[in-house]
Predict the 3D structure of the following.
Amino acid sequence: MDKTVLHDVSYGLYIVSTNLSGKNVGCVANSFCQITSSDLTVALSLNKNNFTNIAIKKSKKFALSIISEETNPELIKTFGFQSSRDVDKFQNFEFDTIEDLPVVKENTTGCMICEVFNIVDTGTHDIFLAHVTDAERFNSITPMTYSYYHKVVKGKTSKNAPTYVEEEVSATDSKKYRCLLCGYIYDDAKESIPFAELPDDWQCPICGATKSFFKEI
Amino acid sequence: MDKTVLHDVSYGLYIVSTNLSGKNVGCVANSFCQITSSDLTVALSLNKNNFTNIAIKKSKKFALSIISEETNPELIKTFGFQSSRDVDKFQNFEFDTIEDLPVVKENTTGCMICEVFNIVDTGTHDIFLAHVTDAERFNSITPMTYSYYHKVVKGKTSKNAPTYVEEEVSATDSKKYRCLLCGYIYDDAKESIPFAELPDDWQCPICGATKSFFKEI
């Protein structure tokens, strides 16, 4: 089985956010799609270890902002590199509060307010099925795709990014793997276990992405 | 509520296919995403009226081929414009048979074989949750996104397409709406009911897309 085929599946990039007992929480997500139209419903998949998943299970609603191609990479870094358990991710970004939910407006093309009506347990992840109860457009900038983020944004930002040198192919035998979602580098030379020998359920320590989202660099 | 925000959600384009009692059936789909990685699972949403949906419910498995940017528009026209009830969509395209499933190889970057383990009824559509049991890469061409298909392929093909003139904005008061998925034009001047007054559960007569996938032209 050639699992790299899974990398050819196209996604957008989104900020998913909710409010848990007065605390604003959120993360970056990509597995999101519209399911029905007459009754406007959507599906969102989130890892169970993700704090935002835990919060949505309690709040039963979330906001989803669509990241644009012109986004400041700091937005993805902030929402994808950290856990809302530890930091207030919203403190440096413009956001509104709609129906008690924090909605990121900066760097995004629009948002939806979603009320969860079903949660499907799929093992490591939950699929949240939700009604879209409101939607607002902020601008008409082209939405960011996962592919664009990987190919273009990385290129634009790499000069100032700490990973820039690390992205070059090493002349040594040790291998490096980059998380396509958050940019985290797994360097075999610095780890006790080579990437290839990590268990299948291993996850990116920064954003929680699974092994299939890592690419050798 | 500004429903156009839903158009900013990014998708790929896929041929979903199965075999029903010896008959090869398939269609174009876009609502597809990976759900989990350690146990490789995916989710696919298909309209209940879609013949391929009915067939997958019986066969409990499907193949999914990823349409590439270099696809022949005839592929999308063939699989998106007709029903497998009426025609053999596979007759003019190269395909393999893997585990009894017809797998479109022409114009696609790779395929997955998927075994359904759960079906979630969401009203007009079903979400098929499936294990990926095999995957094969055919080439490394860039996968087609829904946005690319709409913006670029339509441009490339419109000169020879019957819809080319119809795509121009009419000088009259009557409005036209194009299905972003299959290209079908709904022309208010030729219909008894203006598009805006069609019920929310109305569907594209060609590909089954819902009203939200139509854009005024």
